[in-house]
Amino acid sequence: MPRAELRSKRFGCSCHRGRTAGENLLHDEEPLTWLVGRVVNLLEDHIDLALRIGDLPDSSSLITTRIGSVRRVVCGSPAYFARRGVPENIDELAMHDCITFEGFPFPDFWMFPTSKANVSAAVRARLVVNTAEAAIDAAIAGLGVTRVLSYQVAGPMKAGLLNVVLQELEPAPSPVSLVYSGQRRLPLKLRAFLDFAAPQLKARLLRAAL
Prior knowledge:
The protein is α/β, with parallel strands linked by helices. The chain folds into 2 domains: 7-70 and 173-207, Periplasmic binding protein-like II (D-Maltodextrin-Binding Protein, domain 2); 72-169, D-Maltodextrin-Binding Protein, domain 2 (3-Layer(aba) Sandwich), CATH 3.40.190. Helices cover 24% and strands 31% of the residues. The chain contains 6 helices and 12 strands. A 5-stranded mixed sheet has the order 2-1-3-12-4, with helices on one face. It has a 5-stranded mixed sheet with strand order 9-6-10-5-11. Strand 7 and strand 8 (118-122) form a beta hairpin. The model is unreliable at 1-36 (pLDDT under 50).
């Protein structure tokens, strides 16, 4: 049976249990997938489809299919909060052990929106990691609090391994979108993939909502 090759891109983050964004939402094999830490040009890089997390710039050359949204949450283990207390505001967060990510422009600060402007909260990093999986595992082990995307901790949350705090300070949820070029006729292979994947991704994001 003939088989079409689909080049897709997953962009935005690494995920719990070592999966990339697309894998964590849709457990299935893909003919060819790239994982990159930058926004690429779909036409120049010959990529059919991208999964992007976050607001997208206006572009007449791209077509987007929104499949849901995710939150950026602060979380820690029940045992850690029992031992150290639950932070109720940004000032109290500064007194807690935090698990942060290397490679961020300002790893010692977490930004939170307020009614007037974004507030930069200084955090004390007990552990610095380079993947969401490592941060989540460390938080489950009671080493401190971390800040990740909501779908990455949906499983540990439902299992009672992590609790979300400071929900009133969370930024607005980030949209999750499938993006593809609108400058050419939609290939049949891409239409088939969109028809198959989009409903499943939407369902998985709904199930992963906290």
